[in-house]
Design goal:
12% of the residues lie in helices and 43% in strands. The protein is mainly beta. The chain has one domain: Immunoglobulin-like.
C-alpha cells in the first residue's frame, strides 16, 4: 500500500484551514463566556433604575445580574451606545466595576474590537460601539471587580441596516 500521498495531503489541509480563518495571527483567542439566557425579571427596586426600552438580553452570574441594552434599541449599522446595567442579587447597583464591550460578528471575525464603558451612575455603564455592517453580532460584556474573578457574559443579536 502506498502512503506517499498522505503527508502532502495533510499539509494541504493545514494550509486551507489557516487560509480560511481557522487559526493563525488574525484569529481571535478562544474564550470562556456565559451565553445569554432568557431575560431576567426586574424587581421593583431594579425596575426604577433599569435601562428604558427593550434590552438585548440579561444574565445572572453568581451574585451579579446584568442587563444589556442599546440606543437605538434595535442596533443598526453604524455607532450605537451600549449600556450594561449591573446589580447584585439583593438589588444594589454595582458601582465598583470596570466594564468593557468586546464586539464582533458571529459569522465572520472583524478582529479585536474592545470598547471601555464609563460608569454613568447607579450601576449603569455606557460605551459607544461601532457595527461595521448588518448581520449577526455578539457583545461580550467583560466585568472586572476588585477581589473577584473577571466575568465575561455573551449577548448575541442582529444588527439591521440603516
Amino acid at each position: 500500500m502506498r502512503t506517499g500521498w498522505l503527508w502532502p495531503a495533510m499539509a494541504a489541509v493545514a494550509v486551507l484551514a489557516l487560509a480560511s480563518g481557522c487559526g493563525g495571527a488574525g484569529s481571535r483567542p478562544a474564550e470562556t463566556v456565559a451565553v445569554a439566557t432568557p431575560s431576567l425579571a426586574l424587581n421593583a427596586a431594579q425596575a426604577t433604575l433599569a435601562p428604558s426600552g427593550p434590552n438585548l438580553g440579561s444574565q445572572r452570574y453568581g451574585d451579579l445580574l446584568v442587563w444589556l441594552s442599546s440606543r437605538p434599541s434595535q442596533p443598526v449599522q453604524g455607532t450605537a451606545q451600549m449600556e450594561a446595567y449591573l446589580v447584585g442579587t439583593e438589588g444594589q447597583p454595582v458601582t465598583d466595576a470596570k466594564v468593557s464591550f468586546d464586539t464582533d460578528m458571529t459569522n465572520m471575525s472583524h478582529g479585536l474590537n474592545v470598547v471601555t464603558a464609563e460608569l454613568a451612575g447607579n450601576g449603569h455603564y455606557l460605551g459607544n460601539v461601532h457595527f461595521s455592517m448588518p448581520g449577526p453580532w455578539r457583545v461580550i460584556a467583560v466585568i472586572e471587580r476588585p477581589g473577584r474573578e473577571t466575568v465575561k457574559l455573551r449577548f448575541e443579536f442582529k444588527v439591521n441596516s440603516r
